[in-house]
Design brief:
Helix content: 25-40%
Number of strands: 8
Strand order of the largest sheet: 3-2-1-5-6-7-8-4
Oligomer: single chain
Structural class: alpha+beta
Distance between the termini: 69 Å
Mean pLDDT: 86
Number of helices: 4
Low-confidence stretches: 29-37
Largest sheet: 8 strands, antiparallel
Radius of gyration: 23 Å
Order of helices and strands: HEEEHEEEEEHH
Shape: extended
Strand content: 25-35%
């Protein structure tokens, strides 16, 4: 009888551990979503609202793409075979980038690597409005990069480093 009681207690203990794990995971997910929902974003658009994406990379390469009826084309080379998945991923990658820290009244962009940005990109929405942002130095400690919107160079933001790494693409990466 003791073996049967021990097995039942062990089974009940396992069920409790699994339930606690599920509760912990649910609370953690809800907290992360709540934090992201409350965070201001650098580019306040969803990927489906992006009609144009242009950028200058660190090697001086320029790219300019437009999306019409859900299809990306290269603005300066209509016959360029665009990798649609790559461009859709890039558009998604510039949206939803949360701002971790805001520095206002900045007078020296060089201290953030923004006097000569590593990447400058322009996003055009489906209404024809454009936003241009520049990306500078990485903050290794925080795992972020510095960026600013060219319309307001006096305000610098600390944002997710993936904003910069998203633009580490070559022409071949974008070729379909």
């Amino acid at each position: 009888m003791t073996n049967k009681n021990s097995a039942i207690r062990l089974l009940i203990g396992c069920v409790i551990v699994v339930l606690l794990g599920c509760i912990y995971a649910a609370v953690r997910k809800a907290t992360a979503e709540e934090e992201q929902a409350g965070r201001e974003t650098l580019i306040p658009l969803t990927a489906d609202r992006i009609a144009g994406l242009a950028w200058n990379g660190p090697d001086g390469t320029s790219f300019d793409f437009e999306r019409k009826d859900g299809v990306w084309t290269r603005s300066d080379e209509a016959d360029f075979p665009v990798n649609q998945t790559a461009l859709n991923s890039l558009a998604a990658g510039v949206t939803g980038i949360g701002i971790y820290q805001t520095m206002e009244d900045v007078t020296d962009l060089a201290q953030y690597g923004l006097a000569e940005p590593a990447v400058t990109f322009t996003v055009t929405d489906t209404d024809g409005k454009s936003m241009t942002a520049a990306i500078g130095n990485a903050n290794e400690t925080a795992g972020s990069v510095y960026a600013y919107l060219t319309e307001d160079p006096g305000t610098v933001y600390s944002v997710l480093v993936s904003l910069k790494t998203n633009f580490d693409v070559t022409e071949e990466d974008l070729r379909g």
